[in-house]
Amino acid sequence: MIRNLNVGAALMLACSAFAGCSTPDPTAYSGLASAAQLRPNVTDKTGRVPYRYQTNVDWNRYTKIIVDPVTIYNGPDNQFGKVPEKDKVLLANYMQQQFTEKLKTRFAIVSVAAPATLRLHLTLTGAKATTAVLGTVSHIDVAGGLYNTVQAARGREGSMTGSVNYAVEIYDATSNRLLSSYVTKQYPNAMNIGASFSAMDASMVGVRKGADALLAELK
């Protein structure tokens, strides 16, 4: 028990001193096509969607969607840190698959612009891997478990857990008019131990959560 408490104290100290428990918040990435339109999202209380642009649009007008290939952002303000290229490609491919699968429950997935068609462009802008071993230990350790319980209740990140940052840009496919855009950070529930076993698990959970969130918004 004493050893567990010591590990937990060390984890909490690391979080306080080095901000190791949280991952970088997304910015209005300068290389995005919609960067000039993005504004601070004052209605967001979660910190997940800090910048947004939104027009007055009736999503029910649209029945089809083009899902562009996911772009991996390489601007100087990217937030990949030390994530290797192979993991960026893994996440981009996973994002493409997950968003397409979710959106096809609401839209017909098409490849040609036509009336009543949206075009979705996703840009993977950053990610952080779960810290090896410590990510799992912080969930089962006494003090770490308490910290993560509080974080889960607040809807915030767990300790030593990874995340994914990306941008969403939605256009009218025929006019190419930007209808909505935002940048977001997604991550697992702080008590999700299963998302802490391997480096990219948490980021992949974040991708799935992000796909669900977009689908809900477009319904």
Automatic annotation (TrEMBL):
Keyword Signal: yes
Keywords: Signal
Protein name (record): DUF3313 domain-containing protein
InterPro entries assigned: DUF3313 (IPR021747)
Region forming the signal peptide: 1-19
